[in-house]
Amino acid sequence: MNAKRLGIFIVALLPVLVQAQERKITFMLDFIALGRHAPWYVPIAKGYYKEEGLDVTVVPSKGTADVIKGVETGIAQLGFIDVPSLVAGGGAAADIKMVAVNYQKAPYCVFSLNPGANVTTPKDMVGLEFGSSTASFVWKIHQAFMKMHGLDPSTLKVVNIDGSARVPMLAARKVQAIDLFVMSEPGLKRAVKDAEVKCLLLGDHGLDIYANGIGVKEDFLKQNPQVVRGFVRAALRGWKDALANPEEAAKIQVQYVKALDPALIAEELRIVKRLAVVPDTEKDGLGAMNKAKMQRTVDFINNNVDIAGRKLGADELYRDGYLPKDPVRP
């Protein structure tokens, strides 16, 4: 084979070689795949991860503790991790670092009905019968929120209700209010036909802390900095597209999670946009983090939740330098 033909052969072979060298990455969600998770599937369908040399698989989890464990043990290289949960984990969670925050506004919501408890202001939480999970610390966040507003947190009557039972219990008027993320609102409205669903979003009433973002084990981060940067860059491009065009993102997600309703996905994404698009991300790009807000998040959890073992500091929770140099603005 002469040099010219050899050159042509190598050029033709390059795409195959590149494809063969794609780094396989498992990304673990914070729960089963729901409409709110559509932005993670968009970069797969549009080839954004492949452009970064990555072959990404998105997998579900059983919840926050599960995804943290999955990243710690290497089942997943990266995960959609809740910052308050890392803080609550204390020293046991010190190996995981946040490299981007997607939920800039906390998604915690008090859902009630009108007619009914009709919770629209923090003071309406006084004496409220509140369905939550006593196995979680989220109800303590609601109590701390009350304290922040000068209200007696001990008056919140927490009723232990499994997550899957909360909506039916509220719809049947067996409890006055329930604890769910704000993205549950579209599904709740479909379940309740005889009343207006009300959401008191704590993030709209002074709770200025971070929630979910991209977390990675520090060892993997140190060994594969360019892989992490490439994943973050591709993921945020997907987030931008999904928030700009929820209907398109819904069509993409149902190709991977066929049981989901496209209309419900689009509705959830419009709510997610309220959590992701804030002044900080409009200025510095999606995923933006800053030390002052990370410190507020750490202080809020450390001061209001029982921490097992050593308490983490803000500097231990995140690592700068992994967001795109050219910010991906919404």
Describe the structure.
With 330 residues, this protein is of the alpha/beta class. The protein has helices at 3-20, 38-45, 48-51, 64-73, 83-88, 138-148, 163-171, 185-191, 218-223, 225-244, 246-256, 262-276, 279-284, 291-304; strands at 23-28, 54-59, 78-82, 96-101, 108-114, 129-132, 157-160, 177-181, 196-201, 212-217. A five-stranded mixed sheet has the order 2-1-3-10-4, sandwiched between helices. It has a five-stranded mixed sheet with strand order 7-6-8-5-9, sandwiched between helices. The longest helix is centred in the last third of the chain and has 20 residues, at 225-244. It starts with a helix and ends in a 26-residue tail after the last helix. Mean pLDDT is 94; it is low at 13-19.
What is the CA-CA span between the terminal residues? 52 Å
Main pleated sheet? 5 strands, mixed
Shape: globular
Give the oligomeric state: single chain
Mean pLDDT: 94
Give the topology.
Elements: H1 3-20, E1 23-28, H2 38-45, H3 48-51, E2 54-59, H4 64-73, E3 78-82, H5 83-88, E4 96-101, E5 108-114, E6 129-132, H6 138-148, E7 157-160, H7 163-171, E8 177-181, H8 185-191, E9 196-201, E10 212-217, H9 218-223, H10 225-244, H11 246-256, H12 262-276, H13 279-284, H14 291-304
Parallel strand pairs: 1-2, 1-3, 6-7, 6-8
Antiparallel strand pairs: 3-10, 4-10, 5-8, 5-9
